[in-house]
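Apologies for my clumsy wording, but are you able to produce some protein sequence, whichever is easiest, and the tokens describing how it folds?
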Amino acid sequence: MDINLGNMAVIILFRFLIYIMSVKCVGYCLSAVPPINSACKLQIIQTHEDYEYIQEGDIIIGGVITVNALARHDDSEEPGKFVYCYKPSLQNYKYLLDFLYLIGEFNKDEYVSQNLTLGYHISDSCGDVYKAEKSVLQILSGTREPVPNYSCAGKRNIVGFIGDLTSETTIPIAHILSVLGYSQLYHLLKKMIFPYEGQFLKSFNENGELVSPYHINNLFITNDYLSDKKIGLYIPWAPPNQKLNITHNEIIWKTESNKVPRAQCSDNCLPGFRKALKPGAQSCCYDCVLCSEGEISNRTDSENCFRCPDTEWPNANKNVCIVKGAEFLSYTNDVISVFFSSISVLLFVITLLILGIFIIYRDTPIVRANNRSLSFLLLVSIKLSFLSVFLFLGRPVDITCMLRIITFGITFSIAVSSLLAKTIMVCVAFKATKPGSSWRKWLGVKLSNSVVLFCSSIQIIICMTWLAISPPFQELDIHTSPGTIIIQCNEGSAIGFYSVIGYMGLLAAVSFVLAFLARSLPDSFNEAKYITFSMLLFCSVWITMIPAYLSTKGKNTVCVEIFAILTSSAGLQGCIFLPKCYTILFRPEINSKSFLRVNKFC
């Protein structure tokens, strides 16, 4: 029997979609089936809010449909008790008539019905969820006031329900019926397909959902009336690129020249900018903010900016990352490099000329009196100091980083050691002039050479230790200067660097003190006062160089070092040798033995 009833239900629903004719029996229920059980205390009254359509039979099909489109609740007496239905829908009423006509045709067909009478109990939900749920319970109870899980209308064989037109009311009905063991008959039609509008089909998918084409309408207002116009079609089963078909020139926009309106209140943010939402505004209202330093955005309306890699930097428009430029003291691209190179070459040539003059006049009293071997050594060390400037120019590499510090450290130590030896020799020569003095044995080149060798060896040991432990190396500084990679030399060990500078300062200080004390000693060619001035200039330059060196970065640091080397070397050259050259070239009468004899007895 259950299988036959299920088949009957399918036939009923199938025929419901085919037959569209007049109805045999439609009645507005003014009474209900008398209750069998007196416990229900059924009181039959006419109500103005319940619309029901009832026909008894051996098999009953329940149904909740929407005939009246709108409902209004009357909460004046009891909240939710009365629901007033209004605004009947002619189309929905035609569906009801189709169903009732189908029931009548079914009962006429004795072959199909097999002596069973099909009845129905249809209630109008008026499109209201509360009314739909109440209607289901009324149909199951058989009373005006629903009695959940209890039938007061005798043995009514309700085999299933017809659901409502909308999911808003159908889903709550399905929840109630699934708990009570009833099913909605449309679930039996999941795989059935029906013709629709002559060219398309209506069908159900595997989830029981209706699959059908959708017309896309354009709503617009003309003369204060709302109108619509068909502008496209959506076909779910079509290929992906053919599902949506819209005739764009048929769309009516409320803009000048019927142009598509912009759905945003802000202009698009170009690459290089990012969107910043305005506080309290809609998501389409935003400000365009320039990307921060080191960041780019490469698409329109970007919500975020992206940081460039460490070796790259944004271009002027901040939409592309480009390789950072390298910064170092170049031979050709920097004017200051050309200036330093020219000055270094000029001073080297001057030193070379001075050395030539001293070699030519090496046997004259002024050259012999000031220890010409130390003078030659001092001139050579000054020349090397001028040439060491070129190690500071150009792109730094590990080998040049090591050579530049070692070269100027050792050459300056030799130069200052030579001046210290000269000063010591002046003091020893004065002491040795006294009769019976023991200082005579210290006269000669051995003492001066020993002083230079000893003092220079200490600096060499410091430099070699520095190179062995933590030598200078090339360093790429990508953080100090935005958009630039500074190629510079890292000292490796700050202790090693300041030890070299400190030792040179110690030698210069000792030479300055001794020269200052020996400046007034009687001697025809006493150069102690010249050494005093040269050491004063030397110490001033390097003391000033330290804070300047610490406060600069990149090629500016290199410029400070080159300036200190050129200034201190030129100071030694000018203070020590230029006066002697002036005497040799322009006052030859002073540079003679006769002048020394006269000056000695005066």
In short: The domain at 335-601 is CATH 1.20.1070.10 (Rhopdopsin 7-helix transmembrane proteins). The two ends are 157 Å apart (CA to CA). The chain has 14 helices and 21 strands.
